[in-house]
Design brief:
This protein is α/β, with parallel strands linked by helices.
Amino acid sequence: MSEKNVEKIIDIARGKVKADLVIKNANIVNVLSEEIHQGDVAVADGVIAGIGENYCGENEVDINGAYLSPAFIDGHVHIESSMLLPSEFAKAVVPAGTTTVIIDPHEISNVLGLQGISFMREAIQQLPLDVYMMLPSCVPATPFETSGFDLNSYDLSLLIDKPWVLGIAEMMNFPGVLNHDKNVMAKLKLAMSKNKRIDGHAPCLSDKDLCAYIAAGVTSDHECTTPDEAIEKLRKGMYLMIREGSAAKDLNALLPVLLEKNTRKCIFVTDDRHPEDLLEHINSMVKTAVEAGVSPIKAIQMASLNTAEYFKIQDLGAIAPGYKADFLVFPDLKTFKPDLVFKKGKLVAESGKLTADITQNEIPAVRGSVNVKWIKYEDFKIEAKSDNVKAIEVIPHQLITKSVKSKINVVNNFAESNIETDTLKICVIERHRAGGNIGKGFVKGFNLKSGAIASTVAHDSHNMIVIGTNDSDMYTAAVELIKSQGGKIVVDNGKVLAHLPLPIAGLISDEDINSVIEKSMQLNKAAKKIGCNIDDPFMSMSFLSLPVIPELKITDKGLFDSVKFEFVDIFEKSVVKA
């Protein structure tokens, strides 16, 4: 803030000159004093100059006793998971009251490295949404798959001093922390040397190992799924990031913690959400908490001040002099659907609709990222050693899987899908370096009766993943995704039933949110048409290639036992019948 601006704000705060904007007759939700009190709010140059009575402004908005709340902050989100450009993401979340997000560009960085971070930075310009970044700590997530890039501590050091970088993102490699891995240690030390945050990712870590993880500098976790786990992490000083994504939903399970414990170190995050789940955002988490009995002030505090304080953003998250004029107008403290959304003192959304002009800038250029060695129909064949296989079994609504024995068909000495036992072929095709790797195995739980489904969204390295009843449709699906430079697709009898192209890193669409939602719905309908009984098969499929989550997964390098941490053979020992 310049000296001239400070003098102007002082005079406005004292009531000597008119403010740029005054919100009149507000019931102010004060998350600092944890009370609701009446008053006016005066704004100058996007900053709150004063709160009190009888302020005058060039522009005055009388809200007649409605509630004025600080705007909401999403403390941990991967925008890429929405499959939307940041501008389309903003169109969804800003009218819901979210005006700041802290993103982890982990997904796009696994594909494009530093260029992925640069793309996100360029794409967020001129939005009515503040976007801060945590630098990805685990690119690649593991050495058991082929990633597009490897970001080391030197790469991260090139960006760590940027004012929009708040620290190092979720440190998934907690074994690396506990065992003094040199690369992991270098990243932790980089963040600590700059006095910036280190986010955690440590499901079920407890006792002395948890102490060691925290003592290493990790200060938050968004993987708690039970009250006992959450309470232990709060007791040991961690910030509890309560997650409500499209797949992983933890808020209801953790409500007892919010009702019984100190909530000042609890914050709301969405992590991964599909576009149809963005139209209600952090506000829906506030609503759920309040309906369960959490005080509205504490729920709003978790969605604003707590998050800002954790990330050391000193001028955000409250309605008080010197804070950014990011606030919401609610008719009550029940529905939490804002009538008005203000960003830096400017009205940016009204009655659920964006009013700010988001002129679609030219999409930043990125290189093609679906680089597959020339594939042939025969590449999908698996030479049979047995008619019994070790298959991945999907567990509904969970990321973990089971390792089970199952029966396949053997035709001309080749292993084929068995529709009767719901044992379908699954392949992961390396798509970053055209190296030719194809991991092959079998999966249960999708119940396809014909055709194939495929996607280039496959956590965390995002190779191409294909599931099908026959090699021909699997081949067709893979070829079509190569042509579109990424996406999601359903194929049956050689015909494309539904297709969502994702040409930006194989993760993001260049179309608007309504088009992405419509095509996503078409994909799910087409998958059901060929027999799939999973509500969102593409979400379930996308995590089958993540080898850090038990029990059995598959990468481009083969079938991987995530409990033993080793690659395993597809086949159970038995004699192949002629």
